[in-house]
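Quick one:
INPUT:
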């Protein structure tokens, strides 16, 4: 499994890549492998300001439907439109084409409070 060192991670299996005050967010390689084949991603929170831990959408796989949680507080400024036609990119490229949302973060320093790759790997027993 892949856990890029330049990302931050949550116990809910989301990852965050911060560039300035914009965070790109998706689910981890571990999460997509646990879910199985992703068939639908529903995110209807574009333009909304959400708190950390708030639900920003759902991901539907063959086996289950799971909520997606905000790792940090901020405004959802973009949703990955490519997931509408190719939700399977969450499985094939979770840290690239399979990203889910971009958020204008209220407090960019809050991203540093999330787990680094080593802490995340330890949290899932890797």
């Amino acid at each position: 499994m892949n856990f890029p060192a330049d990302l931050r991670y949550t116990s809910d299996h989301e990852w965050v890549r911060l560039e300035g005050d914009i965070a790109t967010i998706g689910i981890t390689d571990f999460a997509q492998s646990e879910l199985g084949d992703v068939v639908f991603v529903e995110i209807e929170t574009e333009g909304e300001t959400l708190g950390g831990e708030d639900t920003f959408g759902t991901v539907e796989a063959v086996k289950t439907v799971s909520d997606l949680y905000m790792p940090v507080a901020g405004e959802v400024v973009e949703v990955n439109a490519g997931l509408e036609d190719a939700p399977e990119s969450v499985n094939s490229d979770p840290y690239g084409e399979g990203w889910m949302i971009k958020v204008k973060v209220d407090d960019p320093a809050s991203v540093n409070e999330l787990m680094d790759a080593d802490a995340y790997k330890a949290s899932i027993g890797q």
